[in-house]
Amino acid sequence: MPSGRRFAFSQFELDLTRRRLIAAGEPVAISDRQLDILALLVARAGQIVAKDDLLQAGWKDVAVGDNSLEQAISSLRRVLGARSDGAGYIETVPRRGYRFIAVPVATTPAPSVAATPAAAPRLSPSFIGRADAFSRLHQAWDQARSGQRAVVWVAGEPGIGKTTLIEHFVKGLGDMACARG
């Protein structure tokens, strides 16, 4: 499957880099399994994709039957709806597999807000000795904004300023919700 690509068809965009389906500019709720199956169908648009290939794409090395695939295809059809000409996007080819009948167009990602790194706010004079940690938080934030998953741990002895570091960082993000736990 071509990773790192985007495909547009009708009002949809399939973003394989960020692993999401977008309809009319809004993300669509779709499972990872459905996304993997759709990605394979779109990558082989116009061709019959064998059931075994789709089962491998959706379930990797897990043994499941045709019924699981039929349910996943049915769910995908509900998510995608019908094309403007009334036809569906996924055609069943009896005893062989399925075919994606829309014509997807490979697109390049439009420059997004995430493509330009946010300017790091200036550190206040009372915020001393944390420039490296502050910079690393901004690098992780820019990575997350570009669609890459990241987990960041802020650890250290009690009283060294972990909370102050995070509060200063979040304050510089502007209108952003922050949850604590």
Helix-strand blueprint:
Elements: E1 6-9, E2 12-15, E3 20-23, E4 26-28, H1 32-43, E5 48-50, H2 51-59, H3 66-80, E6 90-93, E7 97-100, E8 105-107, H4 131-145, H5 162-171
Number of domain modules: 2
* Overall form: elongated
Reported by name, the CATH topology of the largest domain is Arc Repressor Mutant, subunit A
Rg over C-alpha atoms, rounded to the nearest angstrom: 22 Å
Describe the sheet with the most strands: 5 strands, antiparallel
- What's the tally of helices? 5
Strand order of the largest sheet: 4-3-2-1-8
Strand content: 15-25%
Gap from first CA to last CA: 38 Å
Description of the structure:
With 181 residues, the chain is of the alpha+beta class. It has 2 domains: 6-107, Arc Repressor Mutant, subunit A; 113-171, no CATH class. 34% of the residues lie in helices and 16% in strands. It has 5 helices and 8 strands; from the N terminus they run ββββαβααβββαα. The chain has helices at 32-43, 51-59, 66-80, 131-145, 162-171; strands at residues 6-9, 12-15, 20-23, 26-28, 48-50, 90-93, 97-100, 105-107. The strands form 2 sheets. A 5-stranded antiparallel beta sheet has the order 4-3-2-1-8, with helices on one face. A 3-stranded antiparallel beta sheet has the order 5-7-6. A hairpin with a 2-residue loop joins β1 (6-9) and β2. The chain is elongated and about 65 Å long. 17% of the residues are buried. Residues 110-120 have low confidence and may be disordered.
